User: Which sequence fits this backbone?
């Protein structure tokens, strides 16, 4: 029996275990915000990996957004050393999920099996992927106990809210840098035959238009900030959106609609309190705030992205009586794209061909995920997202994962893991890896 056949068999024999592990993970309602049940979920993962011979650490993202004694940001990192020196391969999954929301026909935290699928919040994004990577690694340890290098698995928090108490915190502490680790796979749900090389950039900003308070029955005595904002939106419609639609990129973003620049108005507010009840009193709004969510491409410098917006606002200020504005940055993340011939992408691509007998598809995510922190804070660039789960199911009601997809993905992860730890086993990989490790 070849190693691959042995791995396939070990993984298939663990089908039931993979299902119940996924169910156990989904049953921790790790909803973020506020960050429910992080500690018991992290402890559960740690306990399991300890049994598989891993050294386990729990690290709290202290004083990061949302961290409190009631909602501690508990992360788990597990490491298992091999028998010989070598590289370290790390599997990173986030354990938080978004709220269940409306429209479910299944109990979102029961992890019900129906047909060939498991239903529940986080099955797809991304506890199914986490369970898959654990089963892949545990099977590999049985098939090749004398492996070289080291293997790490982490369960981290807060990805859905920016990852500050999770991967970002750990990256600042050196957990996502060389020489501790060399290669990272993030089992986000990008579909079992796709390799995600990175993501578009993000710029969030708040634009505020200014006015002057007066009685609502005599608006001419004041100055309405909402009317000023209406003009801002009108000019964006006329001048900005058509320009963004025309931008093209070499990034293979999926879905295809995201293959140009986009802008969303995440929120708008003008006038009285966010949550008044009853009748609002008659007042001319002195302020109107608009949160813009601009997603940009690797070809666009961030300064230019900002300038396009600021130029429109400045022109308005010059042309429109009494118009005044402020603009505040909320968040910025640069676009990331690792190369398809880097070591992790090469090893996973080869494994996809072996297991699925199909050519892998290289994609870029429309939104960001924790790879940004690994790249920017950890300065580690050999990272991809690869995992089972259908991307479109993430954050939706009746989210599910297909059990067979997890099995196939586990085989792919195990095979890619072996190639990365023993590059001589895959033609061309050793050369790529050496070049990369020297960078
Ligand atoms: Zn996710």
Assistant:
């Amino acid at each position: 029996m070849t190693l691959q056949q042995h791995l396939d068999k070990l993984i298939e024999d663990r089908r039931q275990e993979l299902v119940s592990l996924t169910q156990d993970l989904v049953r921790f309602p790790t909803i973020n915000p506020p960050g429910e049940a992080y500690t018991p979920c992290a402890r559960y993962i740690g306990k399991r990996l300890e049994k598989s011979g891993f050294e386990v650490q729990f690290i709290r993202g202290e004083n990061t957004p949302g961290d409190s004694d009631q909602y501690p940001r508990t992360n788990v990192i597990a490491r298992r050393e091999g028998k010989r020196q070598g590289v370290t391969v790390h599997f990173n999954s986030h354990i938080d999920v978004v709220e269940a929301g409306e429209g479910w026909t299944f109990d979102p935290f029961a992890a019900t099996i129906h047909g060939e699928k498991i239903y529940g919040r986080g099955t797809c994004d991304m506890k199914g992927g986490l369970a898959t990577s654990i089963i892949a690694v545990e099977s590999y340890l049985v098939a090749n106990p004398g492996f070289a290098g080291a293997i790490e698995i982490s369960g981290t928090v807060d990805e859905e809210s920016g990852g500050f108490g999770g991967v970002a915190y750990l990256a600042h502490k050196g957990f996502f840098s060389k020489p501790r680790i060399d290669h990272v796979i993030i089992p986000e749900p990008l579909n079992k035959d796709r390799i995600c090389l990175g993501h578009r950039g993000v710029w969030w900003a708040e634009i505020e238009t200014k006015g002057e308070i007066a009685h609502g029955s005599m608006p001419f005595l004041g100055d309405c900030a909402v009317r000023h904002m209406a003009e801002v939106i009108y000019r964006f419609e006329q001048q900005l959106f058509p320009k963004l639609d025309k931008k093209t990129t070499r990034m293979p973003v999926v879905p295809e609609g995201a293959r140009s620049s986009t802008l969303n108005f995440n929120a708008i507010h003008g006038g009285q309190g966010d949550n008044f009840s009853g009748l609002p009193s008659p007042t001319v709004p002195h302020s109107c705030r608009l949160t813009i969510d601009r997603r940009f491409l690797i070809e666009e410098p961030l300064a230019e992205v900002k300038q396009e917006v600021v130029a429109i606002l400045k022109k308005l200020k010059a042309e429109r009586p009494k118009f005044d504005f402020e603009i505040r940055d909320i968040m910025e993340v640069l676009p990331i794209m690792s190369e398809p011939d880097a070591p992790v992408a090469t090893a996973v691509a080869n494994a996809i061909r072996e297991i699925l007998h199909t050519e892998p598809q290289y994609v870029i995510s429309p939104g960001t995920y924790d790879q940004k922190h690994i790249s920017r804070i950890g300065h580690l660039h050999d990272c991809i997202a690869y995992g089972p789960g259908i991307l479109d199911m993430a954050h939706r009601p009746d989210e599910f994962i297909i059990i067979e997809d997890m099995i196939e993905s586990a085989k792919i992860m195990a095979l890619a893991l072996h190639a990365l730890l023993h590059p001589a086993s895959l033609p061309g990989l050793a050369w790529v890896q050496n070049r990369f490790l020297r960078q």
The longest strand covers residues 84-94. Residues 94, 125-126, 159, 188, 369 surround zinc ion (CB under 6 Å). The two ends are 37 Å apart (CA to CA). DSSP finds eleven helices and 16 strands in the chain.
